[in-house]
């Protein structure tokens, strides 16, 4: 009999408590929906900013690669110019030496000419 009474009390407790209504659940979930929507919006905004920054970074990397190429080309051109300048300096020194020899030969020729005229 005790079992029957306990079963009856348990059944009565289950029937009197009831279930949550849709209105109650909606009322409890509504603030969470708003917060989740707000967070999703912020997340989308941040993702678009990250995407824009990534695009800018790719463009900057491309620019840096182009600048490096130009710098390497400029360095090669400077090296060629330095080599040409050294060659020009060597040619100028040779020309100065040749000019000095020519001046010496001209002086000898003048002296010989002057001596020939005196004879």
Radius of gyration of CA atoms, rounded to a whole number: 50 Å
Binned, the helix content reads over 70%
Order of helices and strands: HH
Task: Characterize the largest beta sheet: strand count, sense, and whether it forms a barrel.
Answer: none
Mean pLDDT: 88
Distance between the termini: 170 Å
- Global geometry: rod-shaped
How much strand? under 5%
How many DSSP E strands?
0
Which structural class is indicated by helix and strand composition?
mainly alpha
Which stretches of 5+ consecutive residues score pLDDT under 50?
none
Total DSSP helices:
2
Number of domains: 1
Summarize the structure.
By secondary structure, the protein is an all-alpha fold.
Features:
0% strand, mainly alpha, 119 residues, 2 helices
